[in-house]
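Hi, here's the filled form for the chain we discussed.

Project: internal
Contact: R.S.
Residues: 162
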Amino acid sequence: MEQRISLATVAQSCTLAFMSMSFTLTRDELIVPGQNPAADETLKEFQAINAPAQGHSASRPLLLIHGWNDTSVLPQGTVEAYHESVAAGNEVHLLRYPGLDHSATLTSSVPAWLEFLDKQFAGKCGRRASTDRTIQPVDLAVASTPLELPLNEEPLLSFLAY
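And the returned structure, exactly as it came back:
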């Protein structure tokens, strides 16, 4: 994995290219042999950044935006993170975009996340109840893009057997 990361860095690969570089690796090949992942400082930092999504306290409201046709991050994980974070007392706003994959959701949700950030920076975000809303794209045919990872084709089709 370390060699592939070095290659991706030199090539300045995008996320999709990097994902394909690690796709054929086994779980054991994704970690450094003889190392303890629990002691890894980078992983600890990542964990601390993402802790509110795992049920820990957040200092500010959280906005979760997810395309319900996402093949990069499965919707079930986002729903679980939402419920765990709300249960921990956080203010969380989940926006579901049906029919959209990972990248298409980013551009389709621009008005929502810009408004959210604007309110955060303007200090207009008093404590509110958490929300879970479905946002229908204005024109799904225009907003959609092909699946980033075609789960309906081999070799990815076999993952759906779980």
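Let me know if anything looks off before we file it.
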